[in-house]
Design brief:
Blueprint (H helix, E strand, L loop, with lengths): L12 E6 L6 H12 L5 E5 L18 H6 L2 E2 L12 H17 L3 E5 L3 H9 L9 H14 L1 H11 L1 H6 L5 H14 L3 H6 L9 E8 L3 H17 L2 H11 L14 H8 L5 H25 L4 E4 L5 H14 L1
Parallel strand pairs: 1-4, 1-5, 2-3, 2-4, 5-6
Helix pairs in contact: 1-14, 3-4, 5-6, 5-8, 6-8, 10-13, 11-12, 12-13
């Protein structure tokens, strides 16, 4: 794992720690920040599409205020759940945070598992046409009648590459891909290939946590969600529901765990059904994240929760700094 990069050289270094949901990224990041002191001062940039939203703390496993006081964090609690936050927004904000951290002589560490955000930052996401509220209403109405899998099948006809990457029930991404195609006649996959990312702007050290055994991992994810319920996740969702200005058209509400409990708040399912659906959705999310990671070149895969992991990764980064 000796990467051989001088973090003080140009271009400047950026660290990435990613992995599937529940793999322990946040805790490992904090431990790494401690282990690298005082030679390297680390600041964390969240790469998680739910952590941006205020009031969504338990279901997103948001770092505590104590953790954020211990190590500076960026891109957390920067949006109200009623407002959208796109991959393009993330790229803009992440680049600004990276540059600010570098200016202060510190080392940015991106932490999170929103793979679309990481791909956009690393490989690029070309400017695309802005959202069309009229077209989105049309697509939502079509989905209400036929279902999102039917719209996914339509997407496969016009953009097979995008359809292959997007789950059949991923309403937000299906909607955006069809919207871009209908507005421009150009597949969203082609738009995304047109933009340049930051892979050449920085020296990247990229690490990913990967579970060792599938069955044990599934049990871990189920126990983790049940622990969130005991910690007050249902009450958190009920508070969002009680606002009255949110519904399942909002990306925040569609987040895994929140979406399923929202149906319980609506009276559309029992709490037991919502819990089981949330656990299944969490496993499906983790599977998609792992599939992406295993296809991604130049990422060092690490065994999640392995003994001695902090020391191993810290030593790799320190060796890179001296190289």
């Amino acid at each position: 794992m000796n990467v051989g990069v001088n973090v003080n050289a140009a271009p400047p270094t950026v660290l990435l720690l990613t992995g599937p949901t529940g793999s322990g990224k946040s805790e490992l990041a904090l431990q790494l920040a401690d282990a690298l002191q005082p030679q390297l001062a680390v600041e964390i940039i969240s790469a998680d599409s739910v952590l941006v939203y205020r009031g969504m703390d338990i279901g997103s496993a948001k770092p505590s205020m104590q953790a954020r006081a211990r190590v500076p964090h960026h891109l957390i609690d920067i949006r109200d759940p009623a407002h959208s936050y796109s991959a393009g927004d993330f790229v803009r904000d992440a680049r600004a945070a990276i540059e600010d951290i570098h200016r202060r002589g510190r080392l940015p560490l991106l932490v999170g598992g929103t793979m679309l955000y990481l791909r956009a930052l690393y490989d690029g996401l070309a400017p695309m046409p802005p959202a069309s509220l009229e077209l989105r209403r049309e697509l939502n109405a079509q989905a209400a009648l036929a279902g999102w899998p039917a719209l996914h099948a339509e997407l496969a006809q016009v953009d097979a590459a995008a359809a292959a990457r997007i789950a059949r029930n991923d309403a937000q991404r299906i909607q955006r891909a069809l919207e871009v195609h209908r507005l421009t006649g150009v597949p969203i996959s082609l738009w995304q290939r047109r933009g340049g990312g930051t892979r050449a702007d920085y020296r990247w050290l990229r690490y990913a946590l990967v579970p060792a055994e599938r069955g044990e991992w599934n049990r871990h994810l189920a126990a983790r969600f049940e622990a969130m319920l005991r910690a007050g996740l249902l009450q958190e969702v009920q508070a969002l529901y009680a606002r009255g200005d949110l519904d399942q058209r909002h990306a925040a509400v569609r987040a895994v765990g929140y979406r399923q409990l929202w149906r319980y708040c609506e009276g559309a399912s029992s709490l037991g059904e919502a819990t089981q659906r949330a656990i299944i959705a969490t496993r499906q999310l983790a599977k998609r994240q792992l599939t992406w990671l295993r296809r991604e070149p130049a990422v060092t895969l690490l065994p999640a929760h392995a003994v001695g992991l902090v020391a191993m990764v810290a030593r790799s980064i320190q060796e890179a700094a001296r190289a």
